[in-house]
Q: What sequence folds into this?
């Protein structure tokens, strides 16, 4: 029987309905698990115990009275520490912001609270959502193997989901920061269409590339969270006004006839053979489900992806250099360098990179005339051991960002799901990419895959 801390959101709601568990009981159990495991795993920056128990007691009364707000009612969740939370520290993973206490909630935090979710706390992340955990801030530990990477930058959400420290979480993704830890920690993550989820009250890294999305243990759970947080927000003028479907209610729909595109060369170039084989093996699962698999060629990505970090640096400097560089003694060396470098790069260089991304986007739209979903890895390998050269070695293997960064530039929705394990017992990640605003189809396809496999139901021994 699935232990309490690994129940799905649907299973948790069923337990509430039957009276098997109550929101207060579940929340207290989650807090106890955090106290027991987080000193080792370091997924949390802040635990909001008092707030969580207040929200759980309120949910318990409401559910007991028959006033169920939806699938997240009474469900304990946690947030990457760049979402503003009124009266609760929001640090962006930086010592420079360690004492920052917002005066209002981010829009997504408000929407989760209105849905009756219970906030357990704020989760660790790399500084500024870039590539390094700041000195003095928690560096999360992969619960599958403490010697291996967790993925960047939503490392805390990845660890918290894998270890059963919460039932859902929110991350952000600028070049892969939801998909990387989802792949390396063996969980599920959605990067929605750019603008599908409000970024109001979210600390930016690169605003034209930043996406907000859920990280959970299953596609159905992610669909439940996305249904709550998606939609137009007047406080974010870049948020889309398109109608939001109930992703959670539609996740069981058939995927028969869905056209899935696979470029085996793209999936193999610089990719660990075990991961490559796992991705290709998924084709048979989709075919068994009734999908049509088509061989395609992904447009070239390497020319502009090689300089993707320059795009991020320019936009990060525009957002934060004036406020943070005067306090650079409190910044970690990597984030400080990116703000300084972004302040000096030329507009011509930035425009050339942007134009290359636009050209890729046009080729991708043409590709989607023939397919509905694109299949590829989420990361070039399983979680590698943490060494000084780990990221550089992966870059040499074909690039950290070639499977993720292009779809931040184009804004296409993507989904990362577990697709197996390598010989060392570390999770492997499969990525699905869809047309703009077709998160519903991605959720259906990803959920169908998970119904046909059990990779997402395998948990680390913690």
A:
């Amino acid at each position: 029987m699935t232990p309490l801390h690994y129940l799905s959101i649907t299973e948790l709601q069923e337990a509430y309905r039957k009276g098997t568990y109550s929101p207060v009981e579940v929340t207290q159990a989650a807090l106890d698990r955090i106290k027991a495991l987080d000193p080792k795993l370091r997924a949390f920056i802040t635990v909001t115990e008092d707030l969580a128990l207040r929200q759980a007691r309120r949910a318990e009364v409401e559910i007991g009275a028959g006033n169920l707000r939806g699938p997240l009612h009474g469900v304990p969740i946690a947030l990457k520490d760049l979402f503003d939370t009124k009266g609760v520290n929001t640090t962006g993973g930086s010592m420079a912001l360690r004492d920052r206490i917002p005066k209002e909630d981010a829009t997504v935090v408000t929407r989760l609270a209105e849905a009756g979710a219970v906030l357990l706390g704020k989760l660790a992340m790399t500084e500024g959502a870039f590539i390094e955990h700041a000195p003095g801030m928690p560096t999360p530990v992969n619960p599958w193997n403490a010697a291996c990477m967790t993925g960047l930058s939503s490392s805390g959400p990845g660890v918290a989901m894998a270890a059963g420290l919460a039932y859902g979480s929110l991350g952000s993704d600028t070049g892969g920061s939801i998909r990387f830890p989802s792949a390396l920690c063996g969980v599920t993550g959605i990067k929605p269409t750019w603008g599908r989820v409000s970024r109001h009250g979210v600390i930016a890294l690169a605003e034209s590339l930043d996406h907000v999305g859920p990280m959970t243990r299953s596609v159905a759970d992610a669909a439940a969270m996305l249904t709550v947080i998606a939609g137009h927000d007047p406080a974010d003028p870049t948020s889309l006004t398109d109608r939001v479907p109930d992703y959670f209610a539609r996740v069981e729909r058939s995927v028969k006839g869905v056209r899935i595109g696979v470029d085996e060369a793209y999936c193999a170039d610089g990719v660990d053979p075990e991961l490559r084989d796992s991705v290709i093996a998924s084709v048979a699962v989709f075919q068994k489900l009734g999908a049509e698999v088509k061989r395609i060629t992904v447009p070239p990505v390497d020319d502009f992806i090689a300089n993707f970090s320059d795009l991020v640096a320019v936009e990060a400097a525009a957002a934060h250099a004036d406020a943070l560089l005067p306090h650079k003694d409190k910044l970690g060396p990597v984030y400080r360098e990116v703000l300084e470098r972004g302040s000096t790069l030329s507009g011509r260089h930035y425009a050339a990179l942007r134009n290359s991304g636009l050209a890729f986007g046009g080729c991708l739209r043409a590709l989607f005339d023939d397919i509905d979903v694109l299949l590829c890895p989420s990361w070039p390998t399983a979680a590698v051991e943490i060494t000084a050269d780990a990221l550089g070695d992966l870059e040499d293997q074909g690039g950290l960002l070639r499977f993720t960064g292009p779809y931040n530039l184009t804004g296409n929705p993507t989904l990362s799901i577990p697709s197996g394990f390598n010989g060392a017992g570390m999770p492997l990640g499969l990525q699905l990419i869809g047309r703009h605003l077709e998160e519903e189809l991605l959720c259906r396809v990803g959920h169908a895959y998970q119904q046909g496999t059990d990779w997402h139901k395998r948990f680390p021994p913690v």
